[in-house]
User: Which sequence fits this backbone?
């Protein structure tokens, strides 16, 4: 890690009641000082965004989990466009999560379009990539990562790369309790950074935060964060629990 801030993202996915979200907000608000190099972002459901924006302490940013592939509000039933999201004071978007790729038909090209829309509107993005277990077993991890990365990189307007965080999330580790070992995660992060260098140059690639996601918990975050190319985490299940505070604290 260089002087980059560590990104700790909490993806609440499709979880939470009014009561549980209120409790989680109170837990985070009373968590004490965060490490000065931590950038903390949580992504509630669309229904809970207002509670989070109004209720969370101001050093926790709020993110959407998705946005619509057209920039302007209009006749897009059921969707959220970037202008509405920004009007709500939200500046982060998680894009290309493997669940949206798998269940909502989001192709690498659609993800690229959404990344472009978000960045052109001045937002920051956590763009998710990652391979299936069968890809890893066939030694195709980087082929898949490159295929997903290419439209993301191509979508970045000039000067906006510092608002892009790449979330490497091996699909076999998401929600399964199976975490990539620190060595496995580091190896792929290093390869992703090496690929970024070929695309955007050495200096820009060094500056990109590449965060790891996949069953990160209080118990395994310390070992993962020690690795040179792991610049933070995207956390699902554990971000709904008080242990999210421990994951934030491990960036100190
Ligand atoms: C995720 O949803 O991005 C994720 C990494 O989930 P989990 O931490 O539960 O594996």
Assistant:
């Amino acid at each position: 890690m260089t002087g980059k801030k560590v990104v700790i993202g909490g993806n609440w996915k499709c979880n939470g009641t009014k009561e549980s979200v209120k409790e989680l907000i109170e837990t985070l608000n009373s968590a004490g000082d965060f490490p000065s190099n931590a950038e903390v972002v949580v992504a509630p459901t669309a229904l809970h965004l207002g509670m989070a924006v109004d209720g969370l302490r101001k050093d926790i940013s709020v993110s959407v989990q998705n946005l619509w592939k057209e920039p302007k509000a209009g006749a897009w039933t059921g969707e959220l466009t970037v202008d509405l999201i920004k009007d709500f004071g939200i500046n982060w978007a998680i894009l290309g999560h493997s669940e949206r790729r798998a269940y909502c038909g989001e192709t690498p090209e659609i993800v690229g379009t959404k990344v472009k829309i978000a960045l052109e509107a001045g937002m920051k993005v956590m763009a998710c990539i990652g391979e299936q277990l069968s890809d890893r077993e066939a030694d195709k991890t980087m082929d898949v990562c490159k295929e997903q990365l290419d439209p993301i990189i191509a979508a970045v307007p000039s000067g906006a790369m510092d608002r892009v965080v790449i979330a490497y999330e091996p699909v076999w580790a998401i929600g399964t309790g199976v975490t990539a070992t620190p060595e496995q995660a580091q190896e792929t992060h290093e390869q992703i950074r090496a690929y970024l260098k070929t695309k955007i140059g050495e200096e820009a690639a060094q500056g990109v935060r590449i965060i790891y996601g996949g069953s990160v918990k209080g118990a395994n975050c310390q070992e993962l964060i020690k690795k040179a190319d792991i610049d933070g985490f995207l956390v699902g299940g554990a971000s709904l629990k008080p242990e999210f505070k421990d994951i934030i604290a491990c960036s100190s």
